[in-house]
Amino acid sequence: MDPVVKKFDNNIYQIDVLMEDKKERMACYYIDSEDPILIEVGPSNSFPYLIAGLESIGIKDIRRSAITHLHLDHVGGIGHMVEEYKDHFVYIHELGEKHLPNPEKLWKAVADVYTEEWLENNWGKIKPTPLENIKTLNDGYEFKLSKTRLLKALYSPGHAKHHYTFYDEESGTMFMGDTLGLIYPHGEFVQPNLPPPDFDKELLFKTLDNIRNYDLSKLAIAHFGIHNEPYRLLDNAYESIDNWINFITSLPDTSDEEAASLLTTWVKTNYEILLVDNITIENYIKNMNPLMQIKGIRNYLNLID
Ligand SMILES: [Zn+2]
Fold it and tell me: Which fold, 4-237?
């Protein structure tokens, strides 16, 4: 399978890195400019696809990447990147300095949710990144892409406490990472993505409010793609997140596993009522990881209790 690279206006490229060897699971973005930047590197197993995608548009030297957050589907390939390109600098939340040179803890946290075997087969082992290749972001940090073009980093907690989004004023594109949720494959609906231990509704809504204040024409979502109608999608995200929390709160005392199965049935039925086609429903359901959602929401509800 070849990675699919799609060019958008303002020299923004979307690279489908074929996460888990499937299409439209994980997008990285490349802004071609005087001083270009890659946004997200994807998981380790996708690294060959990322490089092949970049080479297919003539990019052979990648000097810097901005990572939205420290989850392995977004940052897992960074050790491979700095090994391949010695002068590569990764820009990330300050926790990156702690975890990327010694990624065992990151690995274990995810392995506890997905199992080690699943992780190795699907996302691949993360290699350490030397400290000198790591630069930490702060809220409002500006990447200079050219004399006139800036990419601004916004601290965006809620999905994860180490999450940044990136705003390109020239194109009006906000690179969202997982802040909004999932949209598969080109769907109309935002499916929440609320994992433990960090999901926090108040923080996430504050982040979405902050993003809403920007002059937006597109949202670039990691899972998956560049979407128009940013304000409608943001409104949809608030509504879906509230609906999911209300649904979980309304469940009687059930195990996490039972709750996950009830959530799946309920979400599926909702898509059917909305007349979403079967393939799209399958995509949404396959990628929701319901048990993780239940754990994330219940963890949040316990915190505010
Ligand atoms: Zn993700």
Answer: Metallo-beta-lactamase; Chain A (3.60.15)
